[in-house]
Design a protein that fits this description.
heterodimer; A: alpha/beta; Rossmann fold; 6 helices; 14% strand; B: 304 residues; 70% helix
């Protein structure tokens, strides 16, 4: 695949003015992620963690077949809203990224971009056996097998497919992790950034974006 | 105590009460919506937690200066609207900073936050933001017409541009409310009110599930927290404005809460009944019947 859209080019405005565009510099921020420390006052951090755990905004991005198990959570039967779980249409405002099932290489690229656009602290919940070891797709030519080579995962929900009840149990587990102050996945990502990047680049051959997509 | 200092303290108290009332109304409305849909629904205090959560996010990105200023403009629009309006009639301290021409200033302040948001959302560079902004500005322009005409009609009727005097003229019984003495202006104003609250059928601006959430698409962390604070204050400030102009104001906080809650429920009930208009439909609709009613209201109060 060509990388034309990332190369420097000159565009002309309607008045004929020439504008130099360097997409990687103009459209993206070049800063790499940093580790953000917790608040040094334990009470403050605990309070914040409590708020984070009670207000989980899930990104509405279904990456695989498991996305169909997220929909019933909004319905009267399961109603995840009562646990403070709400859906958000934009990665900027989301806290939880539910990787719902198998990840094809094509989707992985979008998942990485989206994950990096989310603001920390952010959490990843991996659904189904496909994200643990590949599941029924373990020898497929275009899906990844282990998600935690590419993104830091906070909670796995096993099953093929996990029922909405198991998803709710997974959210409960995630809340417990956040309240205990262990939901620092995005700091792990920043610490082991090079390792994650080299893994991602091994899989994604047509890498046509900056190393970190703010 | 210095009277000005005392005035400022009471203004802050007003802001505090309105903020909490706004957040609770938000939560309760969503709870009612959930119960209608046979769900249990969010806890009524969920808006508080969401705001605390957003403020405790650790990372923040920048798209430029206007991007930072936009939420501040938006919040200024909400607080300004509240501060230049008499909130409790007959109470010197809750008159806040209202003065003899406050009605004009308030019409301006309604628009202020929208413009600031338009600049900031534009700078964020997200296409959905741009679509949301263009929709928002055209819809605001459309509903401002009947609203302004109705306000002019009230000003002609009471021969004043001072909200306190308009409220004073409505005292002494329900039949003295402008809602009954000037029904045409009231109808035009309440129709404009539906769009002012940004609920369905006039929610093309945020339009969830369509252009994700419009102008604030790129706003996050504390910036989104500021917008959420405004989303609690601004509607209540508008409700207080409509209550003052049409429903005889309030002489106590209890009366204010009851009246504004029922006015708010008007937009909620209309919202659950009617699905979303497209932006061209809503603009055309406002330039139709509500505009004619608004013109009629001005003519009637001038010549009858």
């Amino acid at each position: 695949m060509s990388k034309e859209h990332t190369e420097k080019r000159t565009v002309y405005s309607p008045e004929g003015e020439a504008i130099e565009v360097d997409p990687l510099k103009d459209y993206f921020c070049e800063d790499l992620p940093e580790v953000h420390k917790k608040s040094s006052i334990a009470v403050v951090e605990n309070f914040r963690n409590w708020a984070r755990s009670r207000s989980l905004w899930v990104l509405g991005f279904g990456t695989g077949c498991g996305a169909i198990e997220m929909r019933p959570l909004m319905t009267p039967k399961f109603d995840a809203y009562r646990y403070g779980i709400q859906w958000r249409p934009t990665p900027r405002q989301a806290d939880v990224f539910v990787i719902s099932g198998y990840l094809s290489v094509k989707t992985l690229k979008r998942v990485i971009r989206t994950y990096e656009q989310m603001q920390g602290p952010k959490y990843v919940m991996a659904l189904g056996s496909c994200t643990i070891n590949g599941g029924m797709y373990w020898d497929s030519y275009n899906t990844i097998n282990r998600l935690d080579y590419y993104l830091p995962v906070d909670v796995y929900v096993a099953g093929c497919m996990p029922r909405p009840e198991s998803l709710l149990a997974g959210f409960d587990q995630l809340k417990k992790i956040i309240r205990e102050g262990r939901g620092e996945g995005y700091n792990v990502y920043a610490e082991k950034f090079e390792w994650y990047k080299s893994n991602q680049k091994k899989i994604i051959k047509d890498w046509d974006m900056p190393d970190y997509n703010w | 105590m210095d009277p000005l200092f005392k005035q400022i303290l009471f203004a802050l108290l007003t802001l505090f009460i309105v903020l909490n009332y706004g957040l609770l109304v938000q939560g309760i409305t969503r709870k009612i919506g959930a119960r209608v849909g046979r769900r249990y629904g969010i806890p009524f205090y969920q808006p508080y937690i969401d705001i605390i959560k957003n403020y405790s996010k650790r990372t923040r990105i920048s798209h430029g200066i206007m991007y930072y200023i936009a939420p501040v403009f938006r919040l200024t629009g909400g607080i300004g609207l509240l501060m230049f309006m008499p909130v409790i009639f007959g109470n010197n301290m809750f008159q806040n900073f209202s003065f003899s021409g406050d009605l004009l200033l308030i019409l301006y302040f309604q628009f202020f936050g929208v413009l600031g948001m338009a600049l900031g959302a534009g700078e964020s560079g997200h296409p959905h933001s741009a679509i949301g902004v263009s929709r928002g500005l055209s819809q605001v322009t459309a509903y401002e017409l009947p609203l302004t005409l109705a306000v002019i009609s009230l000003a002609v009727q009471y021969q004043t541009l001072n909200i306190t005097e308009i409220v004073a003229a409505q005292q002494g019984g329900i039949l003295n409310w402008s809602f009954f003495t000037n029904p045409l202006a009231s109808i035009a104003m309440l129709l404009a009110f539906l769009a002012a609250m940004g609920r369905s059928p006039f929610d093309v601006v945020l339009a969830p599930q369509e252009i994700p959430i419009g102008p604030p698409t790129e706003f996050h962390s504390g910036l989104l927290g500021v917008l959420q604070l405004n989303r609690a204050i601004f509607p209540i400030a508008k409700l207080i404005l409509f209550m003052n102009l049409l429903f005889g104001g309030a002489s106590s906080w209890g009366e204010l809460i009851i009246k504004t809650f029922f006015i708010y429920m008007l937009s909620v009930v209309v919202g659950v009944v009617y699905p979303r208009f497209r932006v061209d439909q809503s603009v055309r609709w406002y330039l139709g019947v509500p505009l004619v009613i608004g013109v009629a209201a001005v003519l009637v109060s001038k010549f009858l």
